[in-house]
Specification:
six-stranded mixed β-sheet; single chain; 10 strands; Enoyl-CoA hydratase; catalytic activity; four-stranded mixed β-sheet; alpha/beta; Enoyl-CoA_hydra_C
């Protein structure tokens, strides 16, 4: 479910689980953690590039597995934040719910014009609990309130404006890229070049500085937010919400 490749100091981890739109199944979470651990142990690796196959970067929790393990998701997100090497996300598809948590945990992220984003948890009777640890320290507070509560979709330019991604290659009126004239790979090139030029110690200590507040949030909130997530997913409302989603109908509470 997670393919690994190495080139010139960068390990690329590709989410490759098209049958469930790269949802955070037990298998995908385990594969991603293993890939991150291998990259951390390899002295030749300067950075990790996280990307995907298909038109979805990550659809969030695998609802056919229920909530999965909130504690395992928290551990995955923390492993990205704590990795002593920068993690860069390359997104050219849809990102929903728990998938946004992966972006929040990454150090740098670049989104293409086909990317779309949504925090859809409230629509199925739960909340973006565990993923809030890497997200809320980095998101615009008013935008977080809007999108957490409404579940609206938004595009790459808005994701960059609110701090969910670092750079956006937005589609222009002519069908090309936006004002910058650069696609995803063109935006990534100077980022990866800069990371390749960093020393292992310099990258690790610089990352430690910019992730300190996020890690304090994990230290403080992991247990309580994992418990909240588990409780919500076990509720009657969540069961109705997940069933309605899988049956492609509105849940009972929609007027």
């Amino acid at each position: 479910m997670v393919r690994s490749a190495y080139e010139r100091g960068v390990t690329t981890l590709t989410l490759d689980s098209p049958h469930n739109r790269n949802a955070l199944s037990k298998g995908l979470v385990a594969g991603l953690r293993a890939g991150l651990a291998q990259a951390a142990a390899d002295d030749a690796v300067r950075a990790v590039l996280l990307t995907h196959t298909g038109n979805t970067f990550c659809a969030g929790a695998d609802l056919r597995e229920g909530s999965g393990s909130p504690a395992e998701l928290a551990a995955l997100l923390r492993s990205i934040v704590e990795l002593p090497k920068p993690v860069v996300a390359r997104v050219e598809g849809h990102v929903r719910a728990g998938g946004t948590g992966l972006l929040g945990a990454c150090d740098i992220s670049v989104a293409g014009p086909g990317a779309s984003f949504a925090f859809t948890e409230a629509r199925i009777g739960v909340a973006p609990a565990v993923i809030s640890m890497p997200l809320l320290p980095r998101l615009d507070a008013r935008a977080a309130a809007r999108y957490y509560l409404t579940g609206e979709r938004f595009g790459a330019a808005e994701a960059a404006r609110i701090g969910l991604v670092t750079l956006a290659a937005e589609e222009g009126a002519d069908g090309g890229t936006g004002a910058s004239g650069k696609g995803v790979d063109a935006l990534l090139e100077p980022v990866l070049d800069g990371l390749r030029r960093g020393s292992p110690q310099g990258l690790a200590e610089s990352k430690r500085l910019v992730t300190a507040e996020v890690l304090r949030t994990f230290d403080r909130d992991t247990d309580s937010l994992a418990e909240l997530s588990a409780r919500l997913f076990a509720s009657d409302e969540a069961r109705e919400g997940m069933t309605a989603f899988l049956e492609r109908r509105e849940p009972a509470w929609v007027p």
